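Researcher: Last one for today. Full complex below.
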Amino acid sequence: MTEDVVPVMRIGDTLLVALQGDLDDTTVIRIEEQLTREIANTSATGMLIDVSRLSVVDSFIARVLARIVAMVRLLGAQAAVVGIQPAVAITLVELGVPMGHLDTALTAEQGLALLQRLRRDDTGTDLP
Amino acid sequence: MTTGSFTNHEPDVFGIGHEADLIRVRKVLRAEAETAGLNLVDATKLITAGSELARNILNYATGGRGRIRVEQIHREGRRGVRATFSDDGPGIEDIDAALTDGFSTRGSLGLGLPGAQRLVDDMTITSDTTSGTTVVIVKWER
Ligand SMILES: Nc1ncnc2c1ncn2[C@@H]1O[C@H](COP(=O)(O)OP(=O)(O)OP(=O)(O)O)[C@@H](O)[C@H]1O
Ligand SMILES: [Mg+2]
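Model: Here's the assembly. Have a good evening.
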């Protein structure tokens, strides 16, 4: 199935995805598949995943989010998760889901700046 | 029966057997957390713990089936929510091991049970290989 499950917005080189609602596991997996396609099929160099409207992120959703970020990086782009609700962040830490390696920002605007920095660092390592 | 301004809230009882039930579990826990006056962080912790336990039923119980009961509880003027997740097998062989971070018989992260335990005020597991598993979690209003 190649049906889109979430709307993806494009701002310059960056894809912006806002997750919302109560997500069951199948929906989460379909979102992962869609985002993989989007990053592979466009020339986007970054992806911001806005989770500010998710009021619950359990270990399954958190794991898939981390996997999406890893996948985007493998495909040569940068990804960051923005807007994690404080209650969700506290819960994830206590739950013990390893998310420390994820690049996160409070707002989409800060997320865009973060992506810029990550892109620069990425190319910077190749310079003499 | 309803007395004065106290609503005698019936417990929510329903089966778990499909992925969509994860969403129902979260919804019911949110409503009950609200009724008990839990703050947002505590409600989020309770819902997340419940989501982990419901998923364990889908993943490990015979036929992926079980049930949940959610009720309001009171002690010394404090309100709380108790949620009981039960299934009819195959049971957890070693409960202590299952409560250890990283223990999984499925090659998963093994975070569900120990994580849920950290998120609630009290968690009790009863399990044996003949009668199945019951996990009770409790979260109190602060
Ligand atoms: N209801 C159950 N019936 C039988 N076995 C269970 C049940 N719940 C948990 N278990 C056993 O306990 C182990 C630990 O459960 P836990 O939820 O902590 O980790 P997991 O489900 O393996 O991984 P994760 O939740 O991180 O994806 C499981 O691997 C499984 O063997
Ligand atoms: Mg689990």
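The radius of gyration of chain B is 15 Å. The beta strands of chain B are 12-16, 66-75, 78-87, 122-128, 132-140.
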